[in-house]
């Protein structure tokens, strides 16, 4: 069957079997390997992508279900050389060690800040509770998302000044 | 892991879906959020020849109410139930249960109807449906029938629905102005885990402060979600009291038929039912009393 999706702002039309999982579609058919496969059993969130802006586990979706919809992967976060505030937050606050969970964590963080620009630490922890990190102990991930919230708030106040990477 | 091969159809209307299901019967499987079915397909516990994705059919999701009945579209996602603030004070047990299901990513996709039809004995919605005496609207190409929640759950992953039927709507009696309260107590090892034990409680109070009706549903303590009918009967018409809750909780624990497994022994789980029902009744009655004062 043919599946057409808008991936990171670009429309892609690809042939695949109906049984193709969204994560395999993204990694193998589209060559975007920033989306990871961890548990493959819907538990870890390493495969998280945004479907029409909402975080989902792409190992537990068929590619066919995403047809006609917008998919955002980690590759879609940076705009050219400018990192997304969430990426900047993970960089500055050291929100990763091995980096395996990071694409999922950042996409969940990005979606959270769209809905709730000023979250509490508890709200961040609740939002990332479907994503497992084996390295960081989560403290710096929470700080990274808080950093992104602060950056976005600052950018909103001074739209002329782009956020730099320190 | 990936599923065995299947054909895929995504009908644009309910009638079209029902016609396809009528034609293919047992070989076809309805796909809603896929948060239970896709794992089963990947493990090849399910190997249908056709998947009928109902995700593109309009009119199957949303929460509204009419003439004392709350209607929830089968494809309403767990997160949408969680956010349905119009249920506050009417069906608190739904609002209490929704955020305890799985994790936020699964709740972004999984649906209440999929959960009901999947009928996992450890699933949370079944117990809630039994507590609130929900009715399921089941449509096939041949017509429509209404199945009460009581009797719908027949065994592990087994319900009264037939393969050519789609659950379209969940109807819950909820007279406006009634003093109601509800609670959902769940023990899980970690966020995202299924329940070791969970209990759903829904109470309606009369003007005199007595319990007019109480509904109690149990999760993960039997071959399917269980309605604790003797406990419900013991509460009806009674003045709320600690002694009454204790007696009802004892009866609810007696209705549980848990197995011993890695999550705990049968004896332990029965006692958790007793403790949770006692707490659940106290919390639900408190909420119902608060609603009017
Ligand atoms: C990691 C993980 C943890 C989870 N934890 C919990 C938990 O704690 N508590 C809990 O209750 N659930 C839990 N679930 C299950 C989750 O709630 C599912 O969303 C739900 O069981 C099924 O809903 P769905 O829309 O995804 O259905 P699907 O997976 O699409 O379908 C499930 C079944 O229902 C049938 N079906 C679906 N919709 C209809 C319909 N309208 N008419 C007829 N048949 C239909 C399908 O054919 C299939 O047999 C968990 C799932 C995962 C992956
Ligand atoms: S790989 Fe999808 S949740 Fe772990
Ligand atoms: S940084 Fe290694 S799993 Fe999170």
Sequence-ordered SSE layout with sheet pairings:
The complex is a heterodimer of chains A (166) and B (293).
Chain A: E1 2-7, E2 10-15, H1 22-29, E3 48-51, E4 54-57, E5 70-72, H2 85-92, H3 102-115, H4 121-127, H5 139-157
Helix pairs in contact in A: 2-5, 3-5
Chain B: E1 7-9, H1 14-24, E2 28-31, H2 37-42, E3 50-53, E4 63-66, E5 69-73, H3 78-82, H4 92-97, H5 104-107, H6 112-118, H7 125-131, E6 135-140, E7 143-148, E8 153-155, E9 158-159, E10 166-173, E11 179-187, E12 197-205, E13 211-219, E14 226-227, H8 229-235, H9 242-255, H10 266-290
Parallel strand pairs in B: 1-3, 2-3
Antiparallel strand pairs in B: 4-5, 5-10, 6-7, 6-10, 8-9, 11-12, 12-13, 13-14
Helix pairs in contact in B: 8-9, 9-10
The site of one FE2/S2 (inorganic) cluster (FES) has 12 residues of chain A, from loops.
CATH architecture of the largest domain in chain B: 2-Layer Sandwich
Structural class of chain B: alpha+beta
Count of individual domains of chain A: 2
Count of β-strands of chain A: 5
Low-confidence stretches of chain B: none
Strand content of chain B: 25-35%
What is the CATH architecture descriptor of the largest domain in chain A? Roll
Specify Rg of chain A, calculated over alpha carbons. Answer: 16 Å
Shape call of chain A: globular
- Biggest sheet of chain A, open or closed, and with what strands and sense? 5 strands, mixed
Q: Mean pLDDT of chain A, nearest integer?
A: 95
Report the C-alpha radius of gyration of chain B, rounded. 19 Å
Report the largest inter-chain contact.
Answer: A-B, 29 and 28 residues
Rounded average pLDDT of chain B: 96
CATH topology of the largest domain in chain A: Ubiquitin-like (UB roll)
| Helix and strand run of chain B | EHEHEEEHHHHHEEEEEEEEEHHH
Distance between the termini of chain A: 46 Å
């Amino acid at each position: 069957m043919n599946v057409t999706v808008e991936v990171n702002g670009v429309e892609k039309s690809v042939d695949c079997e109906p049984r193709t999982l969204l994560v395999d579609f993204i990694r193998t058919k589209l060559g975007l390997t920033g989306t990871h496969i961890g548990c493959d059993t819907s538990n870890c969130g390493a495969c998280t992508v945004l479907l029409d802006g909402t975080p989902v586990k792409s190992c537990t979706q068929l590619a066919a279900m995403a047809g006609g919809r917008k998919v955002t992967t980690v590759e879609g976060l940076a705009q050219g050389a400018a990192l997304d505030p969430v990426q900047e937050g993970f960089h500055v606050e050291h929100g990763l060690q091995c980096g395996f969970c990071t694409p999922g964590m950042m996409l969940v963080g990005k979606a959270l800040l769209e809905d709730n620009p000023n979250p509490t630490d508890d709200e961040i922890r609740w939002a990332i509770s479907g994503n497992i990190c084996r390295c960081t102990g989560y403290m710096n991930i929470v700080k990274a998302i808080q950093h992104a919230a602060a950056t976005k708030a600052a950018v909103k106040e001074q739209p002329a000044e782009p956020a730099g990477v320190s | 892991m990936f599923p065995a091969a299947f054909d895929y159809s995504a009908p644009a209307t309910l009638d079209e879906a029902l016609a396809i299901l009528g034609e293919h019967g047992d070989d076809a499987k309805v796909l809603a959020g896929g948060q239970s079915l896709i794992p089963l397909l990947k493990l090849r516990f399910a190997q249908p020849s056709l998947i009928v994705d109902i995700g593109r059919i309009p009119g199957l999701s949303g929460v509204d109410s009419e003439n004392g009945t709350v209607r929830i579209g089968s494809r309403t996602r767990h997160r949408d139930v969680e956010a349905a603030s119009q249920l506050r004070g009417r069906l608190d047990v739904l609002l209490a249960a929704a955020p305890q299901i799985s994790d936020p990513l699964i709740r972004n996709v999984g649906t209440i109807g999929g959960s009901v039809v999947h009928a996992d004995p450890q699933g949370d919605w079944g117990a809630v449906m039994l507590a609130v005496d929900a009715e399921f609207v089941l449509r096939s190409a041949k017509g429509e029938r209404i199945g009460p929640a009581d009797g719908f759950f027949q065994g592990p992953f087994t319900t009264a629905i037939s393969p050519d039927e789609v659950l379209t709507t969940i109807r819950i009696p909820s007279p406006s102005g009634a003093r109601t309260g509800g609670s959902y107590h769940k023990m899980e090892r970690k966020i995202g885990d299924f329940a070791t034990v969970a209990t759903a409680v829904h109470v309606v109070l009369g003007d005199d402060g007595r319990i007019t009706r109480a509904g109690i549903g149990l999760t993960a303590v039997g071959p399917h979600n269980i309605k604790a009918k003797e406990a419900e009967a013991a509460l009806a018409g009674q003045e709320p009291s600690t002694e009454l809750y204790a007696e009802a909780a004892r009866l609810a624990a007696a209705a549980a038929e848990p197995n011993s497994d890695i999550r705990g022994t049968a004896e332990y789980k029965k006692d958790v039912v007793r403790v949770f029902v006692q707490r659940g009744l106290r919390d639900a009655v408190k909420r119902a009393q608060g609603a009017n004062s």
